[in-house]
Design goal:
The protein is an alpha/beta fold. Helix content is about 30%, strand content about 25%. Strand 6 and strand 7 form a beta hairpin. Helix 1 packs antiparallel against helix 3 and helix 4 crosses helix 7.
Length: about 300
């Protein structure tokens, strides 16, 4: 879930209560890591803790909590072995918390910092069957009666140029991954009406100018309708020395032509080593927009500096 607090608030508005499930400390191999969240309502769920029998059992127990007036908190240990029919071999702790309208002010605080990409902490202080959640902006301490989480925005900035078929397919894939996407095109009516929360659409008459606006450490993907525009954007990217990745859609022939263009315009030859063209894992050879998008995403996720787990 990109913004679990917004999802929780929406379910509370509709149904009055929701169970917030959070994975705690784990040992060995587990489907998802600590801090992963799932929301369980009476007839809906949002997010996933990894699927399988663990998620099925946790969902059942969460729904029983919804019907138990005196139960607001559970913290349970699960071994992911034969008992659950899972072969992960690890173990995890699961926190169940019942949220209701009293929690809306806290959820609003979380929504605000998530939308503004600021780090925050949550401390759940447990006393018997009661839990008090506190919002903090400094790393929490260690206390036996406290379950603490620290959240930060690790999403890498990614600038994608082109809202054609490949760009649209790419936006769908990136919308589920840990990137902060700025999506740029110079044509009206190209963007879909609805995009993921981590995707910002920009209609610009001068796409090249946005290269200089990207922060250091950005990823660039270039998929425009025009070879000349592709070249101009790529040229601007490679003349920076602070980007993580530059991917240009096309063939080896297109790469060779760009190399000549770049060197003729005075570009430093060493920077050409940082250009990826063609893009995408070479083992994935399909040419449809969806397959290209999957291949590019797979290549990005294979890079050593990419944090694969995004907001939980």
């Amino acid at each position: 879930m990109k913004n679990w607090a917004a999802e929780a608030k929406a379910i509370i508005r509709r149904h009055g209560t929701v169970i917030l499930v959070t994975l705690g400390r784990s040992k060995g191999s587990t489907p998802r890591g600590p801090g992963t969240k799932m929301l369980v309502g009476r007839d809906e769920t949002s997010g996933t803790i990894g699927g399988g029998n663990l998620e099925y059992l946790v969902t059942e127990q969460a729904r029983k909590m919804l019907d138990s007036a005196g139960v607001n908190l559970r913290y349970q240990h699960f071994a992911l072995g034969p008992l659950l029919g899972q072969c992960c071999g690890g173990a995890t702790n699961v926190l169940f918390e019942k949220l209701n309208p009293e929690h809306l002010p806290l959820l609003d605080q979380v929504i605000e910092v998530v939308e503004n990409k600021r780090p925050y902490g949550l401390i759940s202080v447990t006393k018997g069957n009661e839990v008090k959640k506190h919002f903090v902006t400094a790393a929490p301490g260690d206390n036996d009666d406290e379950i603490s989480e620290w959240h930060r925005n690790d999403a890498l900035p990614l600038y994608m140029f082109g809202a054609g078929h490949v760009g649209k397919a790419m936006a769908l894939v990136l919308g589920r991954l840990n990137f902060e996407v700025t999506w740029i095109d110079d044509r009206k009516n190209q963007f879909p009406e609805i995009v993921a929360d981590n995707v910002t659409k920009i209609l610009s008459g001068d796409p090249v100018s946005h290269v200089s606006l990207a922060p250091a450490g950005s990823i660039f993907l270039i998929f425009t309708y025009s070879h000349n525009l592709d070249y101009n954007i790529t040229d601007a990217v490679l003349k920076r020395d602070d980007f993580l990745y530059c991917g240009l859609i096309g063939s080896q022939t297109k790469r060779t032509r760009f190399k000549k263009y770049f060197l003729k315009s005075g570009g430093p030859a060493d920077q050409l080593k940082k250009l990826t063209c063609p893009v995408g894992l070479c083992a994935i050879t399909g040419k449809s927009p969806d397959i290209i998008a999957i291949a590019v995403a797979a290549e990005l996720l294979s890079l050593p500096y990419i944090e694969q787990e995004g907001p939980q």
